Amino acid sequence: MSKAVHFETTDGKRWIGRLDGDDIVTAGEAPAQGFVPDEAGWTAIVAADGERHALADVHVLAPVAPGKILAIGLNYQAHVEETNLQRPDVPVVFAKLPSSVTGPFDDIVIPVEETRTDYEGELGIVISKRAYRVSEEDAWEYVGGFTALNDVSGRRAQLETPMRQFTLGKSFDTFTPLGPVIASVDSVANRDEIGVKTTIGDEVMQDGNTRQLIFDIPALIEYLTRGVTLEPGDLIATGTPGGVGDERTPPRYLVPGDVVAVEVAGVGAIRNPVRAEDAAASVTDRAQADAA
């Protein structure tokens, strides 16, 4: 049972390590992709015996920089019912851009144009080795670990624009908080029954369990690898339980000042403050970056 952390120390260096209570035991310098939960990666985490850092003294980063993020829609019956949509016969798949990934405790930044920013707490599956045309029977061999994520969704872009811009609305910068760790599969009591809970402040918004998935993890891997190769470090977002803000009466969207948390049993919780984009500062920062 291990939990891998990707973190930055005050000197700006990035490391991977093993979570040990409220400390991190350093395993080594972090590669560009962060922690990839393949056999070599887990061997290094288990054997970690380097410098210890208090979790509170470092900046915890997203555990991995996935090459691909494939997300599943309408994968809990309660979410199907709240949307008044038909239960899918095959997994509903969309992509999130890797540039949307942010750290487990970093800010979610609402773009100026977005008026319906929603939360979607989910279990994330991180792939451990190249997977192509994997059978359901063999699928667990390709799961490197679990993580928590928030599939933050700009419903205005996703649902109000012509042709419904799913990829754009799901991929704004900071719209995929991820972490705080990648937990080995044996870190959870039952890999088929993993709790997923979303809260805003003290209010529980979603409280689901992966035993309620319409398409379970092996079925998703089998379906996704028909014609698509998954690489080590790629991320599958398995779907969100019922209780999203857009389907409440009245709707409950994320607003500046909120702190939204997603807790996955056996993994831990991400907690992200929400703020509005400073449009003027953003334009200045980008102009300076272009001039550099």
TrEMBL record:
InterPro entries: Fumarylacetoacetase-like_C, Fumarylacetoacetase_C_sf. One of its GO terms (biological process) is carboxylic acid metabolic process. Keywords: Hydrolase, Metal-binding. The keyword Hydrolase applies. Residues 68-275 form the Fumarylacetoacetase-like C-terminal domain. GO terms for molecular function: hydrolase activity; isomerase activity; metal ion binding. Pfam families: FAA_hydrolase. This is Fumarylacetoacetate hydrolase. It comes from Agromyces bracchium.
